[in-house]
Design brief:
This protein is α+β, with helices and mostly antiparallel strands. It has three domains: about 1-35; about 95-220, no CATH class; about 230-329, Endonuclease, Chain A (3-Layer(aba) Sandwich), CATH 3.40.960. Helices cover about 40% and strands about 20% of the residues. The longest helix has 18 residues, at about 5-20. The chain is elongated. It starts with a helix and ends with a helix.
Length: about 325
């Protein structure tokens, strides 16, 4: 090898060592390859392959199994084991005009979804018009019109507000699911919205898909609920032609002091319907509170009907039968 050729070879080795992180020995390039740690390149936990290549990372390095590839053109150094992690992994591929929306927004807000869309693992990402909807593997892109007031930050992620996500779901779920979601928005504890906010959102975008369904759902939404199953039970009661119960009704003693709240209450018939979810059985503190609360209700001559998930099977026929019987006593 000539002196010039040797110098070119050494220069090439230095270049390769800079990009790929190889060890250089006196005999040339070592057979042991030491990939550059991603942290050294300041790419962050989540990054695009384009950015990584601009920083000198090779395509072969980006294919290594220590990097997860949840979406085309995106890599992450951490496990994608939650909806937040999944969204954070895609965040570097999003433009400032993009937000998480639809069912993805619902999950980020911790709001209830029906089984019809619960298994959809795709991320729903909306672009503010006129920017085109994103197109990536594992992503359902949308192009929409929304204002700054309809976007918020959740866990460092740009997300449409809970009310906006409710409106967006009108094109994806049925009327019952919209009522359950709407009840969750105006729930008793820490409600993220108000009835007036739901109505205003519908009227502000009268031409959006599913508006007639939203309007019908809003008529059935009730504030101060405690769980989606309570809403499903309430709707089953109405479908059976029974009177509409009061939600989280205050039960007072003879001196007017409130001694308890009933889930679904028929005041005229003095009937209280309680939905017992699993937490009433598995949470010891909740169990003890329930025992005392139900004793106080019984002591005031109210009839209590306790319903659980099994009673809602088959269109809630057993739940309706028990409630109908209590109302006729």
């Amino acid at each position: 090898m000539t002196r010039r050729a040797a110098r070119v070879t050494a220069d090439a080795a230095c270049c390769v060592s800079h990009i790929f992180g190889l060890w250089i020995t006196g005999a040339g390039i070592s057979a042991t390859w030491q990939p550059i740690a991603m942290q050294q390149l300041e790419l962050g936990t989540n990054f695009t392959t384009r950015h990584a290549q601009q920083e000198g990372v090779s395509r072969s390095r980006l294919r290594r199994t220590d990097l997860a590839s949840p979406h085309h053109g995106v890599r992450t150094t951490q496990a994608v084991d939650s909806i937040v992690a999944q969204c954070r992994a895609f965040l570097p591929a999003m433009s400032p005009a993009m937000v998480f929306s639809h069912t993805t927004a619902a999950r980020l807000h911790g709001l209830p979804l029906p089984t019809s869309v619960r298994d959809d693992v795709r991320l729903h990402v909306s672009s503010r018009a006129p920017e085109r909807a994103p197109r990536h593997r594992g992503v359902r892109g949308h192009q929409m019109r929304f204002g700054d007031t309809e976007v918020m930050v959740v866990d460092g992620l740009p997300v449409v507000t809970p009310v906006e996500s409710w409106c967006q779901l009108a094109s994806m779920v049925d009327e019952t699911a919209l009522v359950v979601y709407g009840d969750a928005l105006v729930r008793r504890k820490s409600p993220p919205a108000t009835m007036s906010a739901l109505a205003a959102a519908i009227e502000s975008s009268p031409n959006r898909p599913g508006v007639p369904r939203l309007r019908r759902a809003l008529l059935q939404v009730r504030a101060r609920t405690d769980s989606p199953m309570e809403t499903i039970l309430r709707l089953a009661i109405l479908r059976a032609g029974l009177p509409e119960p009061r939600v989280n009704y205050k039960i007072a003693n003879r001196t007017g002091d409130v001694v308890a709240h009933g889930d679904l209450v028929f005041p005229a018939a003095r009937v209280v319907v309680e939905y017992d979810g699993d937490q009433h059985r598995t949470d010891a503190r909740q169990y003890y509170l329930d025992v005392d609360r139900l004793w106080r209700i019984h002591s005031l001559d109210w009839n209590v009907v306790r319903i659980n998930r099994t009673h809602l099977a088959g269109g809630a026929a057993e739940a309706v039968r028990r409630i109908r019987l209590a109302l006729t006593l």
